[in-house]
Design brief:
single chain; 244 residues; mainly alpha; three-stranded antiparallel beta sheet; 3 strands; 44% helix
């Protein structure tokens, strides 16, 4: 799970931390894409470093930039574009086909800038990140309005440490969103427990001789949803989900 990066002080006071926030914001908004020097907006960075932009304002400037438009809007289908917007700006995949299509229609009716603003200036964004926190992948956490499918879908659109978003131009989630079914996380053969997932969670009950508050469950993909429902039904909270 990606650790959130927060702005702990005024950027023009703690320049080293501001530089770290800038780097993390670029990585999140542009999906780990390596940017050429001409694609980096030094004037927007300067505004942030001087304290004239919050992290939210910096995210919005990058999301509405010509670079983002060139890399993701102009080269992808509308469905793939919206999927990536959810990932980059809200840290989760779309919940369902209705949510996906609402944003596709907004893009068609009101244009690129309105579509991008609908994420960054939303109540969900402010509730999750506020104005000083860099967006991050929330799909492996327990979150308000979250669904067990969020983790599986986020794994499908995860390009990995060495990959980058938009390498594949077509939607990866459209069939899953339209059917309501879980997409297949694993797209290659594996052996042993390589397909297993580890769920770390907390319980209100003290369990075991050591009275551990944090529990760990190792499950396969097909039983993940049932395991999560069982944990939540007993008042547990999911901390993280990762490959075993």
């Amino acid at each position: 799970m990606t650790e959130p990066t927060t702005l702990a002080s005024q950027p023009n006071v703690d320049t080293s931390h501001a530089a770290e926030v800038i780097q993390q914001t670029y990585r999140q908004v542009f999906g780990n894409r390596h940017l050429m020097e001409l694609d980096v907006n030094s004037s927007i960075e300067a505004l942030f470093m001087n304290g004239d932009l919050t992290v939210q304002g910096f995210v919005m400037a990058l999301a509405q930039s010509d670079t983002y438009k060139k890399l993701f809007f102009e080269t992808n289908s509308p469905y793939q574009f919206v999927e990536l917007n959810f990932k980059h700006l809200l840290g989760r995949p779309p919940h369902d086909q209705v949510e996906l299509m609402n944003h596709v229609r907004l893009l068609q009716d009101e244009g690129f800038e309105a579509e991008m603003a609908s994420y960054v200036y939303s109540e969900e964004y402010l509730s999750a990140f506020g104005v000083d926190q860099v967006p991050y992948n929330r799909a492996s956490e327990s979150m308000v309005g979250g669904r067990t499918l969020n983790y599986t879908r986020s794994r499908v659109v995860d390009a990995g440490y060495a990959g980058y978003d938009s390498a594949d131009r077509q939607s990866k989630l459209l069939q899953s969103l339209c059917s309501g079914n879980s997409p297949d996380v694993v797209d290659r053969k594996s052996v042993g427990n390589a397909n297993s997932l580890t769920i770390n969670w907390t319980s209100r009950r003290q369990v075991g001789a050591n009275r551990r508050a944090v529990q760990k469950s190792v499950v396969n993909q097909t039983s993940m949803s049932a395991t999560i429902r069982s944990i939540l039904s007993q008042g547990g909270k999911i901390l993280s989900i990762a490959k075993a």
